[in-house]
Structures are given as C-alpha cells and as structure tokens.
Amino acid sequence: MLDKLAHSFEKGGKHEKLYPLYEAADTFLYTPPDVAKRDSHVRDALDLKRMMTTVVIALLPCVLFAMYNTGLQAHLMIAKGAAPLDNWQTALYQMFGLGFDPASILACFLHGAIYFLPVYAITMAIGGNCEAIFSVVRKHEINEGFLVTGLLFPLTLPPTIPLWQVALGIAFGVVIGKEVFGGTGMNVLNPALTARAFLFFAYPAQISGDQPWVAANLTALPQGVSGATALARAAVDPGVVMNQTGGWTATWWDSFLGFIPGSMGETSTLACLIGAAILILTRVGSWRTMLGVVLGTLAMSSLFNAIGSQTNAMFNLPFEWHVVLGGWAFGMVFMATDPVSSAFTDIGKLIYGFGIGVLVVLVRVVNPAYPEGMMLAILFMNMFAPLIDHFFVQANIKEARSSWRSIVPATPSASPHWSASSAGSASPAPRSRWPTARPRTRSSTSRSRSSRSPA
C-alpha cells in the first residue's frame, strides 16, 4: 500500500512537503530498498535503526518493572492506611474491580500501567509532533532517535506528575535540547535529561524527590511512614536506610531489586543491569563509560567516607548504597552512554565516565537542597565531552605523525626522485603534493588534430 502512495510524496508529487512523514512510516515498517551501486566506504550491519531498536529492547525490563512497582508502592501505602488518589486514573482502575492488594501481580501491574502509559503517550505525541514539524520545515528525514528519547523521558518521572508538565518538558527537550543544534546526531546535551532538567528547575516541588512519589494520598498515614524517595531519606539520616529505622523497612536487596519509591523506571538496579548487558553484548553501549562511572563513584564515596562529618549525614553513605539509590544505575546505563552527547575516544570515555561518577557523589553529598546528582553530573560532563575528545584526538594525531617520521626518514637515500644539477652532481628533487600530469607532445597534438580532420 505504501508503494502505491510513494509517487504522491516524491519530488513533484501532490504531497511532496510531507515526504519526511511518509519516509518515517515506510522505513519504520519496512527495510529501505536502497543499495550501494559502488564499493561502500563503511560496511556495518548496525545502522541507526538497529541501534535505536536495540536500546528500546534494553529498556523493556525497566519499562515492565516501572509499571509493576508503581502499582506495588501505591498498594503498599494504601494497605498501611493511605487513601487512593481522587483522580481519573484511580476511577479507571477501580472499573476493573481488582482491589488494592499488594500481593496481586496483575493488580499492581495494571494500576502502574494506568499511570505510566498516559505519560508515555503524551511524550510520544508532543515530542513526535515537534520532531515532525522540524523535519518537514528542514526537509530531512525523521530519525528513529526520538523513539529512545520518548521512552527514556517517562522513565525518569514520578508517577503523579501532571500530564501538562510532561508535555512542556518533552517539548523543551526536543526543541531546545536537540533541534536547535541541528537534529539527531548534532545535539550537545542529552535531550531526555534536558527535558527533565527543565522540569526540575521550573517545577522543583514535583521533581526534587522530597515530596511523596507514590500514587496514593499519604495524608492519613501514621507518623513515621513516608513516601519520599530513598535518597531523600538518606540525605537526612543514612541510618534510616542502612539500619532500617525510623519507619523505613527497605533493605539493600529491596533497593537493588527496585521495591522502593522513586521515579518510575529508575528504582530497579537489576533491570538496569540487564539492559547494560544487552547494550554491551551488542556493542551499542560503551563499557568504558560505565566502568568510568563505577570507578569515579567508588573513589569519591570512599574519600567522603574517610573524611566523615558530624553535620552532613551523606558523608557516611557507603559506595554500595550510592549505586542502588536514586537514578545512578539508570543514568549510567542509558544516559551516560548516549553516543552523541558523550565522548567517543576510548580513553575519553573512561575520563568522561569517571567525571560523572565523581560529580554525582559530590552533588549528593555537598548539595543540601537536591540529594540526587546523576542528572546534573551527566549534563555537566556532556558539555566537557567535546573538549575531552579534542585533547585525545590531537594527541593521537601527533603520535601518528611522529611514528610516520620514524618510518620514513628525511634522507636523500630514502627518496627515489633525483634531479641532475649543472655541475653533474645529483640532488633530490622536491616532492610534489599532487601527481604530475604527463606533458603533451607536439606529435600527439598533431595526431589528435589530424584524427579530427575529414577523410
């Protein structure tokens, strides 16, 4: 069917201006029939479409667990005395008659899906339209990169975020974070993190993490029970997290598996590690960047643990808790490894990741207002990634030049080109940068002229 409509969208057709939309649908459903007519310069089975599809597959464990854990946290709080939220999501869920049983996997999954899917739908609708408008105006194809951005952004949001804030955030991330730089492959900052940073600075009450991130009304809860994120609780007293005191009942394994309140897709470190394995095995994500983040976090957290503090509780939070709280694992696997906004040299990836690991602990410990630092650390290192690559690229160029000079020494014996001087001595002739054309002789010119004369 699409082949029959192709002539209407091609050059000179009735809908020529809408060709990017047709091309996006055609390449999404079918493999492009274009083949190289000459020897290709780069031959690789992994193109942009397959790369983005791999990232989406790697995100599926986080998506599935996000829907389950969102409903689970709401049902746990309701079982402790909280009331269901008075909104259309609760009304829609109650139509299925499943109740608020935290032991029911189906009930938890369905309740969480009712909160996650509208956020995802708004993200794809608003962000996709922004992407399509810029593609039509600029007359270039719609790339598959937005499929990843449109899935990453909802996973970084709390379940109770207003949908109009979702629309504002993704519009800002696509337009300001990507399109103003030229579109896919040209952006300096990660578009999904740019969108979340906009919401963080514009609406900090809903995004900062110190407010309840559970889809339930917690005003009726007994004292000591909170729906704030684990990292926000740890910023007040790490003993609440590490010793399970003060009403907090989550263990390290609960935090590792993800059974804690937080952003919908960031709570499960295990789901993120499954995605990391997929990205590393398919060579889509850089293991060097991930290793750098781990080493940077280990070094900085160990330094703060050694220093200690009587006034700042976060100084005492050990490394094994840093990696399971907040968005550390999600940011390391899916945000820091963005091939466009991160470093591309091998050593540069290690330094880039190490800087993220250092900064995330620094922001968590030193910043008194915002205990989470992964978003700010990645955005900060995004701006330094081109500078890091510049130094290592220049170093590689200098090393290559010195190696070439050592292989080809500048001596007369090494040059096969000689010219005889008037004294009869031989001296090397200067090598030309361009191949010298063979001179045309008079005989050849006359032959060419005679060949054009009539018989």
TrEMBL record:
Region called Disordered, residue ranges: 411-455
Keyword Protein transport: no
GO molecular function: FMN binding; oxidoreductase activity, acting on NAD(P)H, quinone or similar compound as acceptor
InterPro entries on file: NqrB (IPR010966), NqrB/RnfD (IPR004338)
Transmembrane residue ranges: 51-71, 157-176, 256-282, 289-307, 319-337, 349-367, 373-393
Keyword Ribosomal protein on entry: no
Reactions catalysed according to its record: a ubiquinone + n Na(+)(in) + NADH + H(+) = a ubiquinol + n Na(+)(out) + NAD(+)
GO biological process: respiratory electron transport chain; sodium ion transport; transmembrane transport
Residue numbers of FMN phosphoryl threonine PTMs: T229
GO cellular component: plasma membrane
Cofactor names: FMN
Recorded topology in the membrane: Multi-pass membrane protein
NCBIfam families on file: nqrB, PRK05349.1
Family of this protein: Belongs to the NqrB/RnfD family.
Name this protein carries in UniProt: Na(+)-translocating NADH-quinone reductase subunit B
Gene for this chain: nqrB
